[in-house]
Amino acid sequence: MPRVDVGHNEPLERALRRFKKKIEREGILREVRDRKHYEKPSIKKRRKQRKTGWSQ
Fold first, then answer.
1. Distance between terminal CA atoms of the chain?
2. Which of 19, 26, 38, 42 is the right S-S partner for 4, CB 3.0 to 4.6 Å?
């Protein structure tokens, strides 16, 4: 779980920006988008093969 400590005189906008960057780096947003819709296993396998450049 990502966590951002907010300083005593730190603006909330700055802390929120740091939080968003941390979420982006950890790949949480991508995972949420991927889980939004069901993806058939065959399509998932095909997408992974295209990503790695490996084909049968």
1. 38
2. 19
State the residue range of the domain holding 43. 12-52
Produce one character per residue of 17-55: b if its CB has 16 or more CB atoms within 10 Å, e if not.
eeeeeeeeeeeeeeeeeeeeeeeeeeeeeeeeeeeeeee
8 Å CB contact between 19 and 1? no
What single letter denotes the amino acid at residue 20? K
The domain total for the chain is 1
Looking at the domain assignment, is residue 23 inside a domain? yes
The pLDDT score that the predictor gives to residue 53 is 72
* pLDDT, tens digit, 9 for 90 and up, residues 1-44: 788 889 999 999 999 999 999 998 988 888 888 888 888 899 88
